[in-house]
Amino acid sequence: MRIVVDMQELRLKIAALLKQSLERNHMPRRKKQAEKPPKVRQQRIQAQRPKLDARPDTIDFRDQMYIATLTEVPVEKTLDDYTKAEVPILNQGTAGACAGFGLATVANYLLRKRKVRPDTTGVSPWMLYTMAQQSDPHDESAAYGTAANPDVGASCRSAMKGWNQNGVCQENYYSESGARKPANEVVVDARLRPLGAYFRVNHKDLVAMHTAIEEVGILYVSALIHEGWFQTGTDGKIPRVDGVSGGHAFAIVGYDRAGFWLQNSWGTGWGNSDKHLLRRRSIQGIWMFNRQGMLSLNLPHTSSVSVTTVC
């Protein structure tokens, strides 16, 4: 069978096919969109946004300043040692009770690390917060208070004073609504967890801060925080955002070359399992406790730090 081929038409078809092939191969490829970090956790934090009402510590010249000892201090204090204590991550919800919840985190750690009769029973953050509110002056001159709304949270110092004078009961003995056991049982149980010596630490003295963390393992902190705290990712970093959103209290549990690691009280849905990296420039003051006690820190409200111990 004889086939007649039009060479001109064949050339045109081959040229068209080549052109299509070239266009297909040289067509700019669509860039793969970078995966966006999951927003579920942060949306949950935004929906249950806590009230930021931690108050600055009042000045009291009776507070003793912490003096760094000659102990060896590591360049970094990672989270490895802290996580071994298995301190529970608390959740204050939308309540402005961070002064009590931050101190409860510190107390839970110190009681677990206590050499004599370690105690793994969680303490009541609501008892600590209630005692702090009763100690703080609720008047028009308060940092965030007004005459119409005197209930403006509490300071770290008042929370520690309440613990120092009364002890703290276990978590299921005292809730947000008040005592869940008879008063005498609450008092007796609280006396089992007294607070010993505590010291104020100079927040501008990095050596003192690192030494205090090495000695005790944890710091109690209050600070003025910004919107970056509500935009954190799972990498454990708080992005810097201008402005101030309010006062907040929490615990510092370690440090590295970039800043301080903290444990918050906003539940496990906040960032890296409720632990984040805090830049030092945010810190204003600190409280510290001895080896058998606990540490506490104040940020933008104050200009000092303090240390305490648990008996």
Explain this structure.
This protein is α+β, with helices and mostly antiparallel strands and 311 residues long. It has one domain (41-310): Cathepsin B, Chain A (Alpha-Beta Complex), CATH 3.90.70. The protein is built from 8 helices and 10 strands. The strands form 3 sheets. A 4-stranded antiparallel sheet has the order 3-8-9-10, with helices on both faces. A 4-stranded antiparallel sheet has the order 4-5-6-7, with helices on both faces. A two-stranded antiparallel ribbon has the order 1-2. A hairpin with a 4-residue loop joins strand 5 (246-255) and strand 6. Mean pLDDT is 77; it is low at 31-41, 139-147, 280-285 and 290-311.
Give me the side-by-side strand order of the main sheet: 3-8-9-10
Principal-axes shape call: elongated
How large is the share of residues in beta strands? 15-25%
Q: How far apart are the termini?
A: 108 Å
Overall tally of structural domains: 1
Q: Report the CATH C-level class.
A: Alpha Beta
Count the DSSP helices.
8
Indicate the mean pLDDT.
77
- Largest sheet: number of strands, sense, barrel closure: 4 strands, antiparallel
Which class of secondary structure composition applies to the elements? alpha+beta
Helix content: 25-40%
CATH superfamily: Cysteine proteinases
Please tally the β strands and state the result. 10
Evaluate the radius of gyration.
28 Å
